[in-house]
Design brief:
about 300 residues; mainly alpha; MetI-like fold; globular
């Protein structure tokens, strides 16, 4: 009969060494420490980046409430008292209110057209197989590589010949044309993620393709449409080069043009408070739209990236 003996531990012996786990715990401990250091460094980097992004915007808002003397002689101090007349001057005297309405008119048309045309084109490309399907898709994608500068001169003469230069709908059509490639690219991937069984069941029940698209597939694509709506709204709201060339009528200038002209004029009029107030008015709508639809934007972009 053999007797199993337990090795005796000396006073200096490490119990963890006897089990053979000491080295593994050291590795786990070192990995945990490294993860913590990396996490702290990442958080500090994000905080630093947030300060860089938020500080100019906050400083602009405070500056828009100062008088001209405060802006020039104490730019880093808080305003002694809010000078709301700056916003009144910017809205009325600098015609920012009119430019805001012009921008809203153009974007209402261009955004509606962009989403409608892109959704229809993307749905056909994503859900139907036909000769030339890939060719049409890649033709749209080629538009992503076409710089705006190359189209300015031809667009200027083309819109003049068609009689739509200096018109809201003419500028809206140009916005739609430049927004289509990326919007179609995104929505094609999004429509591919939607279940096709629902559309097939509707067709079996007697629905035609128009009913399937407008009543079933389009509501299911709502997250992607919202994401692209926000993306295109931000881009078209801040567009400057196209309206600068194609919208020469002063009464129909959009907000980006008006803000650019105001920046030039204030160099002579020295009404810097109105200038900063106009900048605040310009940035607030985009910030509000992003804050309200932030979660839908993220979910829509994530869903559209799952399948291409």
């Amino acid at each position: 009969m053999s007797v199993n003996t337990i090795p005796a531990l000396t006073p200096d012996a490490d119990p963890i060494d006897a089990g053979g786990n000491h080295g593994r715990l050291e590795v786990v401990s070192s990995e945990t420490t490294g993860d913590r250091i990396l996490g702290v460094f990442t958080q500090l980097l994000l905080v630093f980046w947030a300060v860089l992004v938020i500080f100019p915007f906050v400083w602009m808002i405070f500056t828009s409430l100062k008088t001209n003397s405060e802006i020039l002689f104490s730019p880093w101090d808080l305003p002694a008292s809010p000078n709301w007349v700056n916003f009144s001057n910017a809205w009325n005297n600098a015609h920012i209110g009119r430019y805001v309405m012009n921008s809203l008119i153009v974007i209402a048309m261009s955004l509606t057209g962009t989403l409608l045309v892109s959704a229809m084109a993307a749905y056909v490309i994503a859900r139907f197989e036909f000769p030339g399907n890939k060719v049409i898709f890649y033709v749209f994608m080629a538009g992503l590589m076409f710089p705006v500068f190359l189209g300015l001169v031809p667009l200027y003469f083309l819109m003049g010949d068609l009689g739509i230069k200096d018109t809201y709908h003419g500028l809206a059509l140009v916005y739609i044309a430049y927004s289509l490639p990326f919007t179609i690219f995104f929505l094609v991937g999004f429509f591919k993620t939607l279940p096709g069984e629902v559309a097939e069941a509707a067709i079996v029940d007697g629905a035609n393709q128009y009913q399937v698209f407008f009543q079933i597939m389009l509501p299911m694509a709502k997250p992607g449409l919202i994401a692209m709506g926000i993306f295109n709204f931000l881009g078209q709201w801040n567009q400057y080069l196209l309206p600068l060339v194609l919208m020469q009528d002063e009464s129909k200038r959009v907000l980006s043009q008006g803000l650019g002209m105001l920046a030039i004029q204030q160099g002579y009029q020295n009404d810097y408070g109105a200038l900063f107030a106009a900048m605040t008015i310009t940035m607030v709508p985009t910030l509000v739209v992003y804050i309200i639809f932030q979660k839908r934007l993220e979910s829509g972009l994530t869903a559209g990236a799952l399948k291409g």
